[in-house]
């Protein structure tokens, strides 16, 4: 067994703690957010474990994902290869989430020091200053969630010269933590952001599929419509939850697979995610994928950041509900969705909110969204 130390989500103590956890000179670590706690997490973990990522996810179900140094470093090495070599990294994501941890791991593997942002809310100005503070003679990279990218793009579109310079200086901006709306992707490309779309989870040591293509060593298969992943990046499992570990990490002869819970297609070269398997509503006797409805809605003018969640209806049972920060004509939205996916998929309601509720990771808070749709 190995000791587990709780480390605050602050680059100053966290970066050396990650380094020591990886090389074995220190204990395994559990990064926690400000004001967070480690209730229920054991203070000793199996020897392979180097980092524990504590997350409730967007569904509100708590998990303690146990990751080995081997999995974290395999992911970092594969990312380095995919990006064309080692680089300098800006740490713009919380260090208690896998995306933030992996920025630190990639920098350590490249023998560089990640540059963090000042405490407080993310701003395009602070981000640009951090980027421009990196050495100019090496590859410069970062990882953002779509919400952060949106703020950077807005600042660049408004003509901020520092943000524009920072964007041009970045060799790669990894975008994960949720679907990247097509409208935002187009706007980002127009101002010069070199976006790499990533797909993965804490259970895969972060993003392991870039722009639909698996990283080196990662395998993909589809079983009953579910995306499953294998490779050296997989977590050891969930601490204190052998039943969930056994259900999610399945062993086939000679291969261990992670059941993502996502629906998708795989043509042997490229993976396409179509939504969550549990994001299906049965409305009027027909199954409707909320993820597919969301893709259509986000393609409409002014609704690039809109989300689609399940709502109740006295006549139809469950129905798609659009949650957006801008008003839109519901009948036009329904017509667009109906034309692409059929009558049953047309959203029944549109809820306008001042802002989309987010988790600390920057992902949409689906639990809060469902409550807004119900209200």
Helices and strands in order:
Layout: E1 2-8, H1 11-23, E2 28-32, E3 44-45, E4 49-55, E5 63-68, H2 69-83, E6 87-91, H3 98-109, E7 115-116, H4 124-132, E8 139-144, H5 146-157, H6 161-169, E9 172-175, H7 182-190, E10 195-201, E11 206-210, E12 213-214, E13 219-223, E14 226-230, E15 237-238, H8 242-248, E16 249-252, E17 255-266, E18 271-276, E19 280-283, E20 286-289, H9 290-298, E21 307-313, E22 317-324, H10 330-341, E23 349-352, H11 366-374
Parallel strand pairs: 1-2, 6-7, 6-8, 8-9, 9-10, 22-23
Antiparallel strand pairs: 1-3, 4-5, 5-15, 10-11, 11-12, 13-14, 14-17, 16-17, 17-18, 19-20, 21-22
Keywords: Ligase
Protein name: O-succinylbenzoic acid--CoA ligase
InterPro entries: AMP-bd_C, AMP-bd_C_sf, AMP-binding_CS, AMP-dep_synth/lig_dom, ANL_N_sf, ATP-dep_AMP-bd_enzyme
Structural description of this entry:
By secondary structure, this protein is of the alpha/beta class. It has two domains: 200 residues, Rossmann fold, CATH 3.40.50.12780; 96 residues, 2-Layer Sandwich (GMP Synthetase, Chain A, domain 3), CATH 3.30.300.30. Helices cover 31% and strands 32% of the residues. The strands form six sheets. A seven-stranded mixed beta sheet has the order 7-6-8-9-10-11-12, with helices on both faces. Strands 13, 14, 16, 17 and 18 form a five-stranded antiparallel beta sheet that branches. A three-stranded mixed beta sheet has the order 2-1-3, covered by helices on one side. Helix 4 packs across helix 6 and helix 9 packs across helix 10. Keywords: Ligase.
Give the structure's gist in a few sentences:
The protein is of the alpha/beta class and 375 residues long.
């Amino acid at each position: 067994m190995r000791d587990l130390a709780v480390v605050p989500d602050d680059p100053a103590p966290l970066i050396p703690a990650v380094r020591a956890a990886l090389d074995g000179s220190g204990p395994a670590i559990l990064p926690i957010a400000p004001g967070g706690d480690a209730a229920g997490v054991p203070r000793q973990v199996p020897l392979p474990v180097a980092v524990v990522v504590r997350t409730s996810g967007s569904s509100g179900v708590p998990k303690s994902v146990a990751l080995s140094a081997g999995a974290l470093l395999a992911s970092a090495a594969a990312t380095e290869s995919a990006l064309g070599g080692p680089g300098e990294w800006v740490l713009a994501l919380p260090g208690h989430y896998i995306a933030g941890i992996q920025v630190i791991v990639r920098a350590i593997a490249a023998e560089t020091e990640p540059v963090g942002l000042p405490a407080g809310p993310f701003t395009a100005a602070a981000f640009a200053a951090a980027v421009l503070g990196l050495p100019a003679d090496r590859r410069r990279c970062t990882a953002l969630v779509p919400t952060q990218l949106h703020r950077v793009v807005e600042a660049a579109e408004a003509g901020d010269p520092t943000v524009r310079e920072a964007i041009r200086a970045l060799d790669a901006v990894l975008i994960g933590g949720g679907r990247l709306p097509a409208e935002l992707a187009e706007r980002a490309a127009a101002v010069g952001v070199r976006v790499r779309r990533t797909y993965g989870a804490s259970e895969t040591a972060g993003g392991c599929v870039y722009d639909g293509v698996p990283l080196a060593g990662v395998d993909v298969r589809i079983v009953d419509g579910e995306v499953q992943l294998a490779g050296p990046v997989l977590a050891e499992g969930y601490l204190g939850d052998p039943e969930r570990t056994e259900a999610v990490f399945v062993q086939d002869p000679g291969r261990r697979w992670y059941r993502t819970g996502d629906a998708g297609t795989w043509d042997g070269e490229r993976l396409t995610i179509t939504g969550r398997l549990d994001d299906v509503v049965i409305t009027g006797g027909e199954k409707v994928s909320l993820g597919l409805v969301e893709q259509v809605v986000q393609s409409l003018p002014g609704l690039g950041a809109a989300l689609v969640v399940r709502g109740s209806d006295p006549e139809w049972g469950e129905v798609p509900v659009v949650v957006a920060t801008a008003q839109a004509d519901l009948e036009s939205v329904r017509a667009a969705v109906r034309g692409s996916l059929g009558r049953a998929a047309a959203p029944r309601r549109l809820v306008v909110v001042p802002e989309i509720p987010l988790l600390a990771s920057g992902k949409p808070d689906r639990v809060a969204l469902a409550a807004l749709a119900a209200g």
